[in-house]
Write a structure and sequence with these properties.
The complex is a heterodimer of chains A (87) and B (410).
Chain A (H helix, E strand, L loop, with lengths): L1 E4 L13 E4 L4 H11 L1 H7 L10 E5 L2 E2 L12 E6 L5
Parallel strand pairs in A: 1-5
Antiparallel strand pairs in A: 1-2, 3-4, 3-5
Helix pairs in contact in A: 1-2
Chain B lengths: L3 E5 L5 E2 L14 E5 L6 H6 L27 E3 L1 H7 L3 E6 L9 H14 L4 E5 L3 H13 L2 E7 L4 H9 L3 E5 L3 H14 L3 E2 L5 H4 L4 H10 L7 E5 L4 H15 L9 E7 L4 H8 L25 H10 L4 E4 L1 H15 L5 H15 L8 E6 L24 H7 L11
Parallel strand pairs in B: 5-13, 6-7, 6-9, 7-8, 10-11, 10-13, 11-12
Antiparallel strand pairs in B: 1-2, 1-3, 4-5
Helix pairs in contact in B: 3-4, 4-5, 8-9, 9-11, 10-11, 12-13
The chains are: A alpha+beta (87), B alpha/beta (410).
Chain lengths: 87, 410
């Protein structure tokens, strides 16, 4: 069981939860799980090809998902954030 | 009707100008848009305060603080220009802001909005200069400051926030890791995060550099700008500033080429420009003396790429040796001591000038954004003249022989 941590702006699409428990061993399974349980959230996160939308930042156990492929294992937590600004 | 509102850069949805930074529809970043062009602004600006607040009609604030930020010198760099074959080279010397970097401009906007929105704490993620600027502005405004920095930045940049009374959070990680941590903290704490939750307003402060340059040139746009790129926010908002100057009738339309400069040890945008890519590839582990430009995943990197191409310009990278040489060059020719970010800009300027990017009579302006006294370790003094002597005249004469006798001087 992994934890999916959501930013404030996305919480209304997951019944108001800040953290959701998900049965997902990798990013591909996570996408299926989100699609099944929270379709509106899935539409906000993924484009028609199943890729992350432009303004979503995703970290898997602290690793930027841009450096990972979809079969990379999820050990503990996936953090979603709006487009990282800063600098 | 409000003079300004927020608009999503991704889906263009429009929102009231409140304490919000992310589009709830597409998660895109929000930016400030202005409702109507204003006319007759030149006279208003010219009679305004001797600070960036003279441009308040072009900024998203409801009140104007009395604060000595901005309106920094525009130097006609004749000696450096001669070395580079440029007759109209100018340096925008932003090293002389209150906390000695251009970050005082963006923080001026953020601190004012923090007060307007009723916050009592101003926070940021910083590569160093922003931490100092946030801490100094918080002190001026009577706010609490909490600043997050990589623990690896220059010692002077760690000391300054403490002197201004900030809480300093040193994070063992890269700037991008600090950034991510602060993005998480910003979800949990109801503070004003200058470069996150207040970002739509914060970035507007970057525009004031070009507003000042245009006014200092006699209300006209230069032919070319050379600007350092870290997150790309200043670069992208310089394009916005140019559009607004024209829309408000403050300057005549003019082709402005906006060049970017990055350090080779962290050059995701310059690398993407060189390869013809539309999107940059993040740099996971930056390695450069230009710590203040060491952002491996710049928030506005892709927008910066598009702007460089749209303005018929380019984004170049320079290695650390070239950056050190450039710090020395601008110090020796113009008497301005810059930190490595400024060295990166001058190194980029040198590279561009020597490759023939500019006509000899082109009006070229380079932004010097941070002060070298913060980063003395970056200076190469190996070839400098330096002697140590006993406190006696004969020792001095022996060390520095003068071939001209006293009285021969005119």
């Amino acid at each position: 069981m992994a934890k999916l941590r959501l930013p404030t702006v996305l919480r209304p699409l997951a019944d108001g939860s800040a953290v959701v428990e998900v049965e997902a061993a990798d990013l591909a399974a996570l996408a299926s799980e989100i699609r099944r349980r929270y379709p509106a959230l899935a539409d906000r996160l993924y484009d028609g090809d199943g890729a992350w939308r432009d303004f979503v930042s995703v970290f898997v156990d602290g690793e930027d998902a841009r450096y990972l492929d979809r079969t990379a294992p999820i050990r503990g937590e996936v953090q979603l954030l709006p487009a990282i600004s800063g600098g | 009707m409000s003079r300004y509102h927020l608009r999503c850069r991704g889906c263009h949805a429009v929102y009231p100008a409140d304490d919000k930074h992310t589009c709830p529809e597409c998660l895109g970043p929000l930016e400030v848009a202005y409702t109507l062009p204003q006319r007759g602004l030149r006279a208003v600006i010219e009679q305004g305060p001797r600070s960036l607040w003279r441009y308040a009609p072009l900024l998203p604030v409801d009140d104007v603080p009395d604060e000595p930020v901005g309106l920094t010198p525009l130097i006609h760099a004749k000696r450096l220009g001669r070395e580079l074959g440029l007759d109209a080279l100018y340096l925008k010397n932003d090293t002389v802001n209150p906390s000695f970097s251009f970050k005082d401009r963006v923080v001026a906007l953020a601190a004012q909005k923090a007060k307007e929105f009723g916050h009592d704490t101003l926070a940021c993620a910083s590569t160093g200069n922003l931490a100092g600027a946030v801490a100094a502005a918080a002190a001026r405004h009577g706010l609490r400051a909490v600043v997050f920095v990589p623990s690896s930045i220059e010692p002077a940049k760690l000391v300054a926030p403490l002197a201004y009374g900030a809480t300093l959070i040193e994070v063992d990680g890269t700037y991008d890791e600090v950034n991510r941590l602060v993005a998480q903290v910003a979800e949990e704490r109801r503070w004003a995060f200058a470069n996150f939750t207040l970002r739509p307003y914060y970035v507007e402060g970057s525009k004031t550099l070009l507003f000042e340059v245009a006014e200092q040139l006699g209300w006209r746009l230069p032919d070319a700008l050379v600007i350092p790129i870290a997150s790309g926010a200043m670069y992208v908002n310089t394009g916005k500033a140019a559009r607004e100057l024209v829309e408000h009738g403050l300057v005549a339309p003019h082709k402005l080429r906006i060049f970017g400069a990055q350090p080779a040890g962290c050059a995701p945008v310059a690398d993407a420009f060189a390869s013809g890519a539309d999107r940059y590839t993040p740099v996971r582990t930056p390695s450069t003396i230009a710590h203040s430009l060491a952002i491996g995943a710049p928030a506005d990197g892709n927008a910066a790429l598009a702007l460089a191409r749209a303005t018929d310009a380019s984004i170049v990278a320079s290695d650390d040796d070239a950056i050190r040489d450039a710090i020395g060059l601008v110090a020796r020719t113009e008497g301005v001591f810059v930190e490595p970010a400024g060295g990166t800009t001058v190194a980029g300027l040198v590279q561009l000038a020597r490759s023939g990017a500019f006509a000899r009579d082109a009006v070229v302006v380079a932004y010097l954004t941070g002060n070298g006294f913060k980063t003395p370790d970056a200076v190469d003094t190996s070839t400098a003249t330096r002697v140590r002597i006993a406190p006696r005249l004969d020792a001095f004469d022996a060390a520095v022989p003068d071939r001209q006798p006293v009285g021969a001087h005119s």
